[in-house]
Predict the 3D structure of the following.
Amino acid sequence: MAPTPFFPRNLWGGGRRPAPTNNTRKIINVKQDADMKELKREIARQGGIIIKELPLINAYLAEFPTDTHAQVVSVLEAHPSINSLDDDIKISITSIPSPYGGNSVPGASNQPKQEIGWGVKRIGAEAFLNVTPKSSIKVAVMDTGVLGNHLDLRGGVRGAVNMAGNTSDLSDPNGHGTHVAGIIGALNNDIGVVGVCPGANLYAVKVFDSKGQGSLSDIIHGLQYCIDNGIKVVNMSFGSDEDNASFQKAFQNAEKAGIIMVAAAGNDRYQHKIQYPAKYSNTIAVSALSPSGNIASFSSFGPEVNLIAPGENINSTWNDGLYKSESGTSMATPFVTGAVAQMLNKWGDMTPAQAKQHLMRTARRLPLPGIYQGAGLVDLQQLLTVKPA
Ligand code: CA
């Protein structure tokens, strides 16, 4: 299937307005019965420019001159048509940044022989690698892009879209998104690695730049794409320490729309604080397991963790067309996303609440504190044989 093109609309319609050179972005949450004509006039009076519409939360992303920011906030926060005025929070991928690896694909002769990784074995996925993924089960990788023509992913990436910045470049200049994609769906063939649900129908929703940095508005935009394109499950190997009303509302509305969201707990190796959106009850929060069976030293944890999954020394596809070993809750999250793809393939459609319940009910409890593992280690044998309640 061809990817659905996405064109951010210029809401002013007419001629271009010069963008302020030093500006601050705000998400303007608008009341349902707002007089939009009047509100747009007020935004313009405050020197603001609407960048894009965020229909998922009935909001607009706008830019205002930074030097009058305090005045803008006081005027708009008191405006009768506005519910809340929120920061466009910066959000980052949850792994150590990697140098640019290029987007060339080495020939088949350079490919290593396929090896099944410790993570795939540990969650019991080895017995289910001959799965035939149904085309209706669409999995989004909300990340830095995916190298779709990697020889161990080829054919699995069914769609791609770029929400990050103003280019239409669909490549993965970071590597992180390609790595996550391989953990979910690398092919069961003769080469490289193998994913939890080999050949899963992947959609690369690019919301982060080459350094793995993005913003809340791009993620909200990406969620809208997922809803409009019938995505069932979204992998979210990213997070932020910050939270606001727009962030909460976007995740509540995405869950209401039936999107199963799997999120990385975070890599706060000192305070182990869980990041947003993993902290929201609308997502499935995943901490990272080390090969020795302990929680990974870098993993965030807390009462919000739902599941633990392999997240240390995980070999997967990379954006140089080869493979790389990486660590992070970013790597643990796609093990659960792949398990969700297998689960939907086996049992049919589920609501986000049903999916979370079945994953947690069938998880294997490890000899670790509850705040480290939630319900335990995702377990495909149980997940795919115990009938959902
Ligand atoms: Ca392979």
In short: Residues 1-20, 97-101 have pLDDT under 50 and may be disordered. The chain has two domains: 23-88, 93-385.
